[in-house]
Amino acid sequence: MKRPVTVDSEGTVTGNTYDKYGSTNPIVRRLMAAFHRNLDACYATAAPTSILDIGCGEGVLTQAWAGRLGSGGRIVGTDLDDPLLHEHWALNREPNLEYRVMKGEKLDFADDEFDTATAIEVLEHVADPEMVLSEMARCARRWLLVSVPREPLWQVTNLARGAYWSDFGNTPGHINHWSSRSFQELLSRYGEIVELRHPFPWIMAVVRLP
Fold first, then answer.
1. For 59-96, what is each residue's pLDDT tens digit?
2. CATH superfamily of 6-208
3. 8 Å CB contact between 53 and 75
């Protein structure tokens, strides 16, 4: 299901322009099943005790992770100030889950406040992904868990399903693009990549912080 594109005051796309989590398209559902299997494996590797989820969007994954952490594990989801996101946050709640309006480039948390920091399908949207990763690494003690679209596969996949032809298959709001190699080079500046997965058409990784 396609959603209206919403942007913040600086022109950054907020939320998901396509509801990949709730899609009934059988191809999308198959791709998302593989995405979730691989993400669950990465989550198991990190085995987080607390989570800072950057760019949490509607809070679908954030709420699911809150349930996995249980009452003893704190989780905070952050994203930009968007009325539609606030509506979803009011629904996707758990006792150990808090949502905060905050930019990933400047996180209002202490050093090492969380065990793990995550950014799932976020870094392709931000103007300064290295600053976001630096802030995530500052706030997390042990792990980063991140995923991005894998290029050029992502844009080719969009074109194959007839989407975003005028932008050559680029999803609205995607301003950064990585191949597997270039993404590994970026992440290696922040720690050791202990797990790397490629569920089509994504890249996801677990990074052990120094």
1. 999 999 999 999 899 999 999 999 999 999 999 999 99
2. Vaccinia Virus protein VP39 (3.40.50.150)
3. yes
